[in-house]
């Protein structure tokens, strides 16, 4: 059993591109905000926009940057505006350890994945983000995976992602008891445009599932 399994489930709202969406997520009670720095995403930011948006985030809300097999130099430039780095590509453990901020590693749930081995290999990670697997897509698939595949004995905090929204996140929290849940498309009006009502509903369902 993970040493943090008894903690409440945190909420990360990812793919933020607008100041008003940051405000809505913070007001709803989000613990972390995600900023996509991979140019292949419709939610991608450049460094200037990252600096402007993260400056709006208040104390005690974690600013997370998402990267996909990008250069250490670019990641270091972004880290001045971040509290946590999320590696969402095929980065080896040694590459992740080049980060100057704490980091988490995203893993796509392929049929043959060995989560215990991954937890060992990425021992320096602060957590493992588990996402649905879709060939050629590093994340943001909008699809769920079989949560029963996650071993209760995994020795890393689990951040659950993949197809979550207000209709299913309560069930996910009750079944998996993850350290955190991560949502992007499930709280959007359109890609990169969040819906404040959906954000509030999502966070509320996470809280209700733990009462």
UniProtKB/TrEMBL annotation:
It comes from Modicisalibacter xianhensis. It catalyses: N-(5-phospho-beta-D-ribosyl)anthranilate = 1-(2-carboxyphenylamino)-1-deoxy-D-ribulose 5-phosphate. Belongs to the TrpF family. Residues 11-204 form the N-(5'phosphoribosyl) anthranilate isomerase (PRAI) domain. It is an enzyme of class 5 (isomerase). Pathway: Amino-acid biosynthesis; L-tryptophan biosynthesis; L-tryptophan from chorismate: step 3/5. This is N-(5'-phosphoribosyl)anthranilate isomerase. Its EC number is 5.3.1.24. One of its GO terms (biological process) is L-tryptophan biosynthetic process.
């Amino acid at each position: 059993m993970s040493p943090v399994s008894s903690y409440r489930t945190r909420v990360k709202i990812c793919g933020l591109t607008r100041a008003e969406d940051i405000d809505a997520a913070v007001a709803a009670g989000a613990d972390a905000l995600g900023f996509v720095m991979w140019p292949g995403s419709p939610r991608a930011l450049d460094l200037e926009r990252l600096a402007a948006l993260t400056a709006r985030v208040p104390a005690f809300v974690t600013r997370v940057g998402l990267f996909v097999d990008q250069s250490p130099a670019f990641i270091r430039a972004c880290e001045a505006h971040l509290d946590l780095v999320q590696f969402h590509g095929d980065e080896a453990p040694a590459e992740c350890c080049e980060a100057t901020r704490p980091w988490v590693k995203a893993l796509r749930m392929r049929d043959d994945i060995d989560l215990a081995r991954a937890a060992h290999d990425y021992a320096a990670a602060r957590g493992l983000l588990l996402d649905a697997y879709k060939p050629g897509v590093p994340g943001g698939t909008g699809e769920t995976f079989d949560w029963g595949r996650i071993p209760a004995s995994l020795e890393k905090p689990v951040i659950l992602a993949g197809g979550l929204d207000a209709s299913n996140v309560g069930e996910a929290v009750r079944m998996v008891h993850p350290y955190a849940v991560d949502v992007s498309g499930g709280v959007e009006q359109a890609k990169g445009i969040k819906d404040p009502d959906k954000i509030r509903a999502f966070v509320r369902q996470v809280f209700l599932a733990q009462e």
